[in-house]
Each structure stands twice: as structure tokens, then as C-alpha cells.
Amino acid sequence: MNKKISSLWISFLMSLIFLSGDIHVGAYLGINWGRTATQTFVPSMVVDLLLQNGIPELRLFQPSLNVLDAFADTNIGLAITLQENFLRNVVEQKQMDDYIHERVKVYSDKGVKFRYVYVGNEPFTKALYMKKQFNGTIRYLNMTRDALDSFNLLDIKATTPHFTDVLINVTKPSQGDFREDIKEKMLKFLDCINRTGAPFVVHIFPIYTVYRYGFDVDFAFFDNKSKFKIIDGNNTYTNLFTFIYDTLVSALAKAGYGDMEIVVGQNWLAYRWICECK
Ligand SMILES: *[C@@H]1O[C@H](CO)[C@@H](O)[C@H](O)[C@H]1NC(C)=O
Ligand SMILES: *[C@@H]1O[C@H](CO)[C@@H](O)[C@H](O)[C@H]1NC(C)=O
Ligand SMILES: *[C@@H]1O[C@H](CO)[C@@H](O)[C@H](O)[C@H]1NC(C)=O
Ligand SMILES: *[C@@H]1O[C@H](CO)[C@@H](O)[C@H](O)[C@H]1NC(C)=O
Ligand SMILES: *[C@@H]1O[C@H](CO)[C@@H](O)[C@H](O)[C@H]1NC(C)=O
Ligand SMILES: *[C@@H]1O[C@H](CO)[C@@H](O)[C@H](O)[C@H]1NC(C)=O
């Protein structure tokens, strides 16, 4: 791989065992907690699970007040998501300031350790399971940053996670680039996060990509059983995860951001049994 992965987030309830192998997690491992489920967890229980298992980071999809309360003085780093149904109604800066005050400033004062505010989620995706494109990301990102700055919350970074379909289809990672139809917006987005020291957050789903590219399915798994390889210059790829990751690195480098920090915000790890049980 060209670059070290600075962090890797997996979805809640997925086993951590799968993180051995050729992926090196540089800084930390986090968990995504979506609360749209038939069995919802009591926030304090989730905090206990995280502490017992030494998980230092959590992403929340909704910054609900009772959930935030449970994280006061836990030292667990939080990423919260500003949902599109909230953002759509934001017309002026004051609304954003009020929201950031209520959900971030107040709880930060109570000892909640916020690390990221995610402004929307995968706004440029074209994947079928998602909604139509969401406009206004750069404007809302700007407003969020300004709101955080106005409360002097300089260490909390504002960014927006992207799905890998912001990239063009490639046969080799070095061909990596952003999709033509969103390139202009992406360049503005990159300028904003680079200026404000925020990372590029990417969601990587190897199983989705392996079908889309028509690669050997084994290439999506981490167990290194795939005979399928892709050679690109001096790099040999035996796993789709590193292939996708380096494709993003190439795209960022072409846009002038080869050194930008990348956070793998979601990674739906491919379990071998998914295929064996079909
Ligand atoms: C994966 O397998 C190849 C041979 O097929 C080997 O060269 C490589 O070292 C293996 N990688 C890991 C991480 O085990
Ligand atoms: C977003 O902008 C595009 C192009 O300007 C437009 O076609 C689309 O309808 C807009 N989507 C929404 C949800 O406003
Ligand atoms: C947001 O936009 C305003 C007006 O263009 C500008 O003054 C401010 O610096 C921008 N903030 C960020 C964080 O880009
Ligand atoms: C990539 O390939 C998939 C599957 O063939 C196609 O649906 C998609 O539109 C392609 N994306 C681009 C950016 O060309
Ligand atoms: C491949 O490695 C050789 C030897 O280390 C180096 O000289 C060359 O520049 C590398 N090529 C690429 C494309 O990185
Ligand atoms: C990104 O930010 C760094 C650090 O502030 C700066 O040195 C660099 O010029 C920026 N890159 C671009 C392409 O603006």
C-alpha cells in the first residue's frame, strides 16, 4: 500500500478478529452504531461494551441527547452525523450555530470527547440503495466549521463521508480519479477539508465493488486465498480493500492532496460464510 491507514471503522456487532491479516491499523479502531434496529441498545450498555472491549471511538448516526449524555467523561471519541433532514432546513448560520451549541458545545462542556462532525452522509453516491443526490454539502460543511470555530471547538473536525463510487471505474489503482460529474464539487470539498485540517472519510464495501468490477469474488476477502492478483507498477494487489484504498490515494494525489489523511469510516468486511451459505 502507498499509505498507512490511520484508522479503520467497522460496523457495530462485527467481530474484530477479521482485522488481522495484511491491514495495519495505524491509530485506532472504531465502531459504527446505527440506532435504526428492531432491538435497540440502551446507551449506557453500549458505553460499557465499548469500554470492556477497549474500543476508543464510536460513530453515531443521530446525535440524540440521551445517547450523548451516556458518553460524558468516558474518553470515548465520538463522531456524530448531521442528518440530511436537519440540514435541508438550515437556511441561516444561526440555525447551525444553535444546533452545534445544543448537540456539541453543551456536551463537550459535560466531558463528551467529540472528534468529528459528519455533515451528511455519502452525498454524491449513485449506489442503488441510497437516495438521490443531496445538494449543498459544501455550504453546510462551511457552516458547520464556522459554527464549531465560533465556540472555539477547533479540535473537532468537520467532514463528510463518501462512498467509493465517487471514484471512476479503474483496472489499476494508479488510474484512480473522481467521477467527472462531481469533480468540481469534490475539488471544492477537498479544498475546504484540507484548509481546515479534516480527513477524507471513505466507506469501503469490498463485496459491492467486487461484483461491480467483475473481479474474482475471493479477491474481496481478507483471508488471502484468492489467486486473483492485480499488478500495478511495483505494487501487487491480492485484496480488493487495498486496491480500492490505493485507488482513492491516486485520485487524491491527482487532485493535489496526496498527503491528505484518510479515515476508513465504514468497512463492511466480507465474511467467507456469506458465500458458503448461499
Ligand atoms: C498472500 O499470499 C501470497 C501468495 O499467494 C503471499 O505471497 C503473501 O505473502 C500472502 N500475504 C499474506 C499477508 O499472508
Ligand atoms: C441537485 O442538483 C441537481 C443538479 O443541479 C438537480 O438535478 C437535482 O434535482 C438536485 N437535487 C435535489 C434533491 O435538490
Ligand atoms: C465559509 O464561507 C464564508 C463566506 O464565504 C467564509 O468567510 C468562511 O471563511 C468560510 N469558512 C470555511 C471554514 O471555509
Ligand atoms: C462503473 O461500472 C458500473 C458497473 O458496470 C456502472 O454501473 C457505473 O456507472 C460505472 N461508473 C462509472 C463512473 O463509469
Ligand atoms: C519501482 O521500483 C523501482 C526500484 O525501487 C523504482 O526505481 C521505480 O521508480 C518504481 N516505479 C514506480 C512506478 O514507482
Ligand atoms: C493542503 O493543506 C496544507 C496544509 O495546510 C497546505 O500546505 C497545502 O498547500 C494544501 N494543499 C492544497 C492543494 O491546497
From TrEMBL:
Swiss-Prot/TrEMBL keywords: Glycosidase, Hydrolase, Plant defense, Signal
Domain of life of the native organism: Eukaryota
Signal peptide range: 1-21
Biological process, per Gene Ontology: carbohydrate metabolic process; defense response
Gene Ontology MF terms: hydrolase activity, hydrolyzing O-glycosyl compounds
InterPro entries given in the database record: GH (IPR017853), Glyco_hydro_17 (IPR000490), Glyco_hydro_17_plant (IPR044965)
PANTHER family per UniProt: GLUCAN ENDO-1,3-BETA-GLUCOSIDASE BG1-RELATED-RELATED
UniProt similarity note: Belongs to the glycosyl hydrolase 17 family.
Protein name as annotated: Glucan endo-1,3-beta-glucosidase 5
